[in-house]
Amino acid sequence: MVHQASDVLADRALRVKTVAAAESLLRILRKAVDSYGDDLECFVIYLAIAMASTSWIMKRPDILAKVAPGGPVPDEYHRPVSRRAIAASTGLPRETVRRKIAQLVEQGFLVEAARGVRTRAGVLYERGNLAFATDLIRELERAGAELARADEDLGGGAV
User: Fold this and answer.
1) 47 lies in a domain?
2) Per the confidence metrics, is the pTM higher than 0.85?
């Protein structure tokens, strides 16, 4: 089989970008373990609940305007999410999700609500979340720069 030069460049670009992306993911996972312990399932569940509970707020400038700069998002804006929805979004077994959520509620990181569980006001400033968020942003920016540099080094050989 004869490979054209463009195929070789595309293959090289894929390899270089895969290594850069995998290294970035490993650094993020290391930060997660450092911040949350070695129970990555619990971390994934906590992160999924935090996003389901609060990410919608970022799309609502009217609600963001009600939040004091640097202040927590009030409890009434933290939406509950069902255990079933978290199991579906994470791909984890419902029993695992139920058990891990019970631990997070018992530890005070989540709040029971009428239709599931939710985060609470100040979630960004709890459990090392702010440090992890800062590290996560920095790492994703670094990964983006590395991937862009790989494109430039390979003559724009985007995958």
Assistant:
1) yes
2) no
